[in-house]
Inverse folding.
């Protein structure tokens, strides 16, 4: 199956901007979706499609895509944005399967 | 509102079986494909299995093929994961999640349950 690769960790100063990337062949065919997960909690969808936010997700979260790379940007990071972020896509190597990225731990300084 | 509530987790010895359930409410269950996703302690998310809305097709990650079976009972708004011949490395929190598919390129999980912990240990 294809893989989605993310940087293991990234830090951002409170109020600054951070971008998290996700690379994989599947992203040439499908948009990535992005999930935030805090310790002990279930993942929460933050971005899907070309650049869509579910109801209740702050507009400081945005998504973009180019080629085999998808990006999640947090503009003006807040303390509550700290957590792990995972991308996800369909797995084009075998239809109808799904694959998650390796995850990025975001620390807000 | 949409709710997904998993149950059935617990501590089990290697080689034994366990069945997880995911009770769905707040939406028309038989309109949606459903998934199981797991997370081993301190690790990332791993997709486990998918079942189409009508149960006609099922897919499992290679590491559980032949041991786990996803199923659903639409009349009861419930998703299942039958886990047989459990191994120590199946230890994880298991989440059920609802799929949204907007062809041709948009695919995501919009609702997740709170998870149920499965611990496989002798």
């Amino acid at each position: 199956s294809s893989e989605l690769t993310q940087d293991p960790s990234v830090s951002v100063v409170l109020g600054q901007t951070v971008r998290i990337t996700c690379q994989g062949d599947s992203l040439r065919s499908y948009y990535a979706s992005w999930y935030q997960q805090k310790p002990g909690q279930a993942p929460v969808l933050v971005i899907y499609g070309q650049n869509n936010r579910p109801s209740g997700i702050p507009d400081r979260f945005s998504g973009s895509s180019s080629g085999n790379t998808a990006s999640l940007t947090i503009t003006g990071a807040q303390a509550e944005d700290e957590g792990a972020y995972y991308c996800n896509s369909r797995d084009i190597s075998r239809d109808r399967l799904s694959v998650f990225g390796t995850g990025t731990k975001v620390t807000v300084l | 509102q949409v709710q997904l509530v998993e149950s059935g987790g617990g501590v089990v010895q290697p080689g034994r079986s366990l069945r997880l359930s995911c009770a769905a409410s707040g939406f028309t269950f038989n309109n949606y494909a459903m998934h199981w996703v797991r997370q081993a302690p301190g690790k990332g998310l791993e997709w486990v299995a998918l079942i189409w809305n009508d149960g006609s097709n099922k897919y499992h990650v290679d590491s559980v093929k032949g041991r786990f079976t996803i199923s659903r009972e639409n009349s009861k708004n419930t998703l299942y994961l039958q886990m047989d011949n459990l191994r120590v490395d199946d230890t994880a929190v298991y989440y059920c999640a609802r799929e949204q598919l907007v062809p041709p390129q948009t695919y995501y999980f919009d609702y997740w349950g709170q998870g149920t912990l499965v611990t496989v240990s002798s």
